[in-house]
Design goal:
This protein has about 325 residues and is an alpha/beta fold. It has 12 helices and 12 strands. Strands 3, 4, 5, 6, 7, 8, 9, 10, 11 and 12 form a 10-stranded mixed sheet that branches. Strands 1-2 form a two-stranded antiparallel sheet. Helix 1 crosses helix 5, helix 2 packs across helix 5 and helix 6 packs across helix 12.
Length: about 325
């Protein structure tokens, strides 16, 4: 059976390199980082290397292969045909080496065999689901423990679960005010209005936030997530009004379903995350986009900064594949 053209091109490149050199995996890792970021600065930050040193390593690899891997046009770079072929093969080699090495370490008792990840239920309708599926497919021998959170309280407890070691990674709303934790932006979550279906504004295609000025706004207690609470209130202030907040009290658990029942019964309107809308089929509630501009919250992957475990490192590589290109450098999570 003939190999696909891309594999044949990769094999030719590999053969040319191997005639005079032994393949260095670190060079492949450097190349993959630059090829995926298409930016030397971001790639250098991703692999904790200086930009000049990274550029030098890529030049060295091109000289040894005898081909150009990137077209460099000012600040913008693109893969050449040879670079595209090498990227496919390099990814295949690195995954196989990683799987083989980790399996050997695990068999010898030298490697932790599981990774514990927490995420809110609505994240199933975001790139988080793709991250989890990709990691499971790429590292089938790692026991991926998924902890799905169905209430706001559970979601917020991820910070403590991370710090005490019960979770290795958590997906939650950023910023996180803890220098012990690092974050990687995943996506902006648009906030939308949840209205009773017979509300006067229910037939509108979208709403300006100021149109909710005379409504009672259902929110969770501020103590559960001061940043989110203050952000929504500030958005209302910026739209020209002070919200009349119907604040949920303990011991009630804040969940999307409970909020929607309150909306349906006429207690007030709610401002909720768009991914939650996709999970809701509750009769009596309609959802409307907010404009001028749409308020957004940031969903981020979060982990212990000092954790250098191979399982976490592998998971974060997958995370960065799905993160927006302009944010693929680890942030500090130091503000709140």
């Amino acid at each position: 059976m003939c190999q696909p053209t891309s594999y044949m091109a990769w094999d030719r490149l590999y053969a040319r390199y191997n005639r005079a050199h032994s393949m260095e995996l670190r060079q492949l890792r450097y190349f993959v980082a630059v090829a995926e970021e298409l930016n030397f600065s971001r790639a250098a930050g991703r692999i904790y290397m200086s930009q000049p040193a990274l550029s030098q390593q890529i030049r060295k690899l091109e000289l040894e292969l005898g081909v150009s891997l990137f077209d460099r046009n000012g600040a913008r770079i693109v893969l050449t045909e040879a670079g595209t072929s090498l990227l496919q093969g390099a990814r295949r080699v690195l995954v196989e080496v990683e799987q083989t090495t980790r399996a050997a370490r695990e068999a010898g008792g030298a490697e932790r065999s599981h990774l514990s990840v927490g995420f809110p239920e609505y994240a199933n309708h975001t790139p988080v689901a793709d991250i989890l599926e990709t990691f499971q497919r790429r590292y089938p021998y790692v026991d991926l423990e998924e902890h799905e959170m169905f209430t706001l309280q559970q979601t917020l407890q991820q910070v403590e679960e991370l710090k005490n070691g019960n979770l290795d990674v958590g997906f939650l709303i950023s910023p996180i005010s803890d220098e012990d934790l690092a974050t990687q932006h995943i996506l902006d979550i648009e906030l939308v209005a949840a209205l009773p279906e017979k509300h006067p504004l229910a037939n509108r295609s979208g709403l300006a936030l100021r149109e909710l000025a005379n409504e009672r706004i259902i929110l969770f207690s501020r103590r559960f997530h001061p940043y989110c609470y203050d952000y929504v209130v500030q958005c209302c202030n910026n739209a020209g009004f002070e919200p009349d907040v119907v604040q949920r009290k303990e011991p009630q658990l804040y969940s999307g379903a409970t909020t929607y029942r309150m909306v349906s019964s006429g207690v007030g309107v709610a401002i909720v995350a768009r991914p939650l809308v996709q999970t809701s089929r509750l009769p009596g509630v309609v959802f409307k986009p907010l404009r001028e501009p749409a308020p957004v919250l940031e969903l981020a992957a979060t982990w212990r900064r000092e954790d250098r475990s191979p399982n976490l490192r592998a998971f974060l590589e997958v995370v960065r594949e799905f993160a927006p290109a302009e944010t693929r450098v680890e942030s500090t999570g130091s503000h709140g």
